[in-house]
Prior knowledge:
Blueprint: H1 3-16, H2 41-48, H3 56-61, H4 79-85, E1 86-88, E2 97-98, H5 114-117, H6 127-134, H7 139-153, E3 163-166, H8 169-180, E4 185-189, E5 206-213, E6 220-225, E7 233-238, E8 241-250, E9 260-268, H9 279-283, E10 294-297, E11 303-307
Antiparallel strand pairs: 1-10, 2-5, 3-7, 4-11, 5-8, 6-7, 6-11, 8-9, 9-10
Helix pairs in contact: 2-8
Amino acid sequence: xxxxxxxxxxxxxxxxxxxxxxxxxxxxxxxxxxxxxxxxxxxxxxxxxxxxxxxxxxxxxxxxxxxxxxxxxxxxxxxxxxxxxxxxxxxxxxxxxxxxxxxxxxxxxxxxxxxxxxxxxxxxxxxxxxxxxxxxxxxxxxxxxxxxxxxxxxxxxxxxxxxxxxxxxxxxxxxxxxxxxxxxxxxxxxxxxxxxxxxxxxxxxxxxxxxxxxxxxxxxxxxxxxxxxxxxxxxxxxxxxxxxxxxxxxxxxxxxxxxxxxxxxxxxxxxxxxxxxxxxxxxxxxxxxxxxxxxxxxxxxxxxxxxxxxxxxxxxxxxxxxxxxxxxxxx
Length: 331
């Protein structure tokens, strides 16, 4: 496998399951902020990103205790399933029918404060210690932990793109802004339920009812949740790209739950650097660059970040800002 094939293969895996890059990336300059040790997490977020409402997905993670485990292991190997993840951009129009493949979320891992995350080993050199500490329930989960650590230590973003891992509330609040080169950002997450244990992917026929473009900027950052005992996110830029919030209504009588959901979608506007062996290209007998835009949905816990000055007509994250009155502090 050549280097470009390896890069594109990694990107495919991230779209399905998420994977990381460096543990703590460089952060943009900004005013000093008190540690969450003495602040409620939402207050800390608002101090760092005063113009960026906290996405609901991140808020949900803050309600989890630090003892909550994230034991679901993703599948990385089925090329046919990977091909189903992607679709042509013209599907994203009101009235069209789609059978989306959306990565499942079967648990909510705890999002740690940095002081706690920094106290835990996070390195392939400490893999034995990490496995002993968290005691994964299966060999598959142990392999996922190793894979996440390796990917976080050796990021392979596409040419011209940037990547990094966020392992704490602080790094997740700052890393996407650092990747985009501005603290003036907006963040979004979808609105989907937790999936039953054992779910491989969210499927079922849906009608596209609303499509809202998140930004006019051709550059966005996406943060994908990884399989790890606590919340770890792989954040990377995508350029050129178009980002959307899509409202999907389950087909009547399909038995698909919920009846309505909102999902984030990213459309990649340049496939010329993709591998000829990309599952979507092979499935449609296409070559890299033959198609202008290829899209995919993101998981429940994934977030999209865009420059605020280029924001499109989409509503802000979940339409309302999480209130400061939420006072669960890290102590």
